[in-house]
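Hello Y.,

Per our agreement to keep a running log of every chain we model this quarter, I'm adding this entry. I've kept the format consistent with earlier entries: sequence first, then predicted structure.
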Amino acid sequence: MTQIVPFSDQLETWLKSKQPKTIAGLITLSGEKSFALIFLVLMAIPALPIPTGGITHVFEVIVMLLSLELIIGRRTIWLPKKWLHRPLGKTLEKRGLPFLIRKIRWLEKYSHPRMQGLLAHRQYLRLVGLTVLILTIGAFISPPFSGLDTIPSLGVVGISLGLILEDVIVYSVGFVVGVVGIGVYVFLGAAATEAIKRLF
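Predicted structure for the entry above:
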């Protein structure tokens, strides 16, 4: 009987290998789950409370493009060669990915496949693409240093993990977190607008 290697172990092995740490490398690692893995890795940085030096906007643009590809029904990733072979960066390699691997390993203890057929359905994946696009736009337009990009980004991370682990419960938690993040953003934006109106 073939033993299934946990996803966290696969990601850790890749991270410790001598292979270039690029988006192309992640695609090779993940195969048919490449969209979910790229979403997960690139949105993990804005989801973490660490200095990023503005690199998050580059990652968010890539995620938005890929979510559009998912919406139109693509099953394989297309990106310009320059983006595919762009290094993920030391922040992601040294801090982001190791932190992510630890959290995934913990989650794998409690998660198991639920409703895999639904999560792999083409029409459902279009909906996933739309959800990821909205949440990523929310993170992208958040004011700098406000922390408002964190919750929508966490939502994308949760949705991606649900797809990778084939667990609709994990996916649903990510979806709810993302919706809450957008709700907080809208609420604070409306409150700020009202305050400005009162001043003038």
